[in-house]
Structures are given as C-alpha cells and as structure tokens.
Design a protein that fits this description.
Elements lengths: L1 H35 L9 H10 L11 H20 L15 H21 L3 H32 L4 H9 L7 H17 L27 H26 L11 H28 L8 H25 L1
Helix pairs in contact: 1-8, 1-9, 2-8, 3-4, 3-8, 4-5, 5-7, 5-10, 7-8, 7-10, 8-9
C-alpha cells in the first residue's frame, strides 16, 4: 500500500516538474548562449511569459485548414508529454514505470513528428510542405539510428524497460563498453536533429534554405503556437532526461525510497539537466553552422556509429 502511494506521488511530482521546467530549460539555453555572446539575454522565465501571452490569444486558421490543424498541436504535445513522464527523473518506481519502454518512447516521439508534419502539409503552403518533406526525410535516417541504439541498450541491459535498465547500469554490472560510447554519440546526434538545434537547423535566420521545424508551424498562432512551443520544450527535456538517465544513472532515488532520497534525487536530476543545457548552449555557440542539405550526411555518420556498436557487441558476445 505504501509503495503504491509512493509510486503515485512520485509520478504526480514528476509530471508537475516536467511541465514547469520544460520552458525554463529553453530559457536557460537561450540565456547561456546570450551570455557567451556578450549580451544580457532574455530572462530565465521568458519562455513562460511568452506561453502565457500566446495562451490568451485565439488561434487564426487559414482558409484551407482542416481539423488536422486544430488537433495536431494537442496530439503532438500529449504524445511528447506522455514520453516525458515515462523517462525517470528524480526517482524510480513511479506509477508508469512498467510502461517506460524505449520502444514506446520511440513510438511516441514518432507520433509527435507525424502530427507536426501533417500540420505543416494541411494548409498547403510551400513552406509547410517543404518543412514536412524535409522532416520526414530526415526521420528516415534518425529512426534507424534510434532503433539500433535501443537494440544495443537492450542487449547490454537485458531489457528495454528504462527502470530496469537504469538499475543494471547503476550497479555497474555492464562495465565499460565501447558500444555504449558509440551509441551515446549517435543519440546525441539524433537528439540535435530532433530538437532543431545547431548544426542540424538554424531557425534564427528565418531563411528558406534553413527552415525545417520552423517552416511547419509558420501558420500557427495563438493557443496553437503556444502548444507547439510547449511541445518543443518538452521534447528537449525528454532527450536530456533520457541521456542523463541512461548514461549518468547515478543519483536517482531507488523505488520505495522516502522523501529525503527524493529530494536528493531531485537536486542531482536538476544538476544533470543544467549541465547538459549549458553544454548544449556552449556547443551551439562554438560550432560552425551546417547547411541543411548536410543533415543526411550528419545522420549517416550517426547510423554508422550505431551499426558499429551493434557489430562490436555481437563480436564481443560471440568471443565471450
């Protein structure tokens, strides 16, 4: 009974933290980038202010828009939020822990991507169709990388469930493996592309040749635009939480722990997310911009690294 109440409580706390911190994470990245460039930058809570302003406005739809444009932002945001609550943050053993499967996470992210592409194509504008075509073509490279990485993690951890995988990795039973390092780099590359971060995208220029994700929501406004912005922030938090949970699994409160362990896990989780956000800002500020047509090559390298990780794992398993 006590374990059940703890699972429900930690799940509700995790849901509240995810919703509250996702826009703050975007604000932190923007603030650090601005400071690195010698500018004062926006306030840390500016994304929340923007969302509050947009939520008060009624969306304006194009004449050719159908129900897809109305439903797509909510479907994408709901799928991404569901993925966010499945990724362990400050504690394990949450209510939805049995559903925290990597394959389910990949499916939820794919559902959000399809909803975004459909929203871009629904109105029939040139920019929306171009962005949707590019997004889906890039996903043809990104999804195989993600599936290969899941294969490696499942073979090493013995499961695709995140809670069980984190427990195996934290106990040190898997040891140091080259395959883990390779898929870490591959997942970082996919995460950059999926979240429209440089060098995979450059929405700050507002130029046609660099538009991918931005092009699909050019027609969004009001509440719909707020939901799209929240979905993008949640997706960034999902990827950072996933990377920290898999490759930095220490500090997470074990299942059945008490409030003190939750508090310690929360501090450690916030610290890991902050470090990853600062690292992302430094990377974006230091790396040269990549042409949008080089993204397939960028993801192709990630695919090769993931395939090499699978091959090395099979060879090492066979020799053992």
């Amino acid at each position: 009974m006590i374990l059940g109440l703890a699972a429900i409580l930690t799940q509700l706390m995790h849901l509240a933290l995810v919703l509250a911190l996702a826009p703050v994470l975007v604000g932190l990245v923007r603030l650090v980038k601005a400071r690195l460039m010698g500018r004062r930058g926006p306030a840390l809570l500016q994304p929340w202010r923007d969302l509050a302003k947009l939520l008060r406005k009624r969306p304006v739809l194009a004449d050719g828009a159908t129900e897809i444009s109305r439903a797509a932002p909510y479907v994408a945001c709901a799928a991404t939020l569901f993925a966010a609550v499945l990724v362990p943050g400050f504690a394990q053993g949450m209510l939805l822990a049995p559903l925290a499967d990597l394959l389910l996470l990949a499916g939820l992210l794919a559902l959000a991507r399809v909803a975004l592409a459909l929203a871009g194509m629904d109105v029939g504008t040139a920019f929306g169709g171009m962005g949707a075509a590019r997004e889906l073509s890039f996903s043809a490279f990104a999804e195989p990388v993600l599936l290969l990485c899941i294969l490696v993690l499942a073979m090493i951890g013995g499961t695709t469930n995140l809670d069980a995988m984190i427990l195996a990795f934290r106990e040190g039973g898997v040891g140091l493996r080259v395959s883990l390092a390779l898929i870490a780099v591959a997942l970082l590359a996919v995460g950059l592309v999926e979240n429209a971060r440089m060098p995979a995208d450059n929405p700050a220029t507002h130029l046609e040749l660099t538009m991918v994700h931005e092009a699909m929501i050019l027609e969004a406004s009001g509440r719909h635009l707020a939901v799209w912005e929240l979905q993008a922030a949640l997706k960034l938090l999902v990827w950072m939480g996933l990377l920290s949970a898999i490759f930095i699994p220490w500090g997470i409160a074990p299942a059945g722990a008490g409030p003190l362990a939750w508090l310690l896990g929360l501090v450690v989780w916030l610290g890991k997310i902050t470090v990853l956000a600062v690292a992302l800002a430094v990377f974006e500020s230091a790396i040269a911009k990549m042409r949008v047509f080089r993204i397939p090559e960028f993801l192709g390298v990630a695919l090769l690294l993931a395939a090499l990780a699978v091959a090395l794992l099979f060879v090492s398993t066979g020799l053992a």
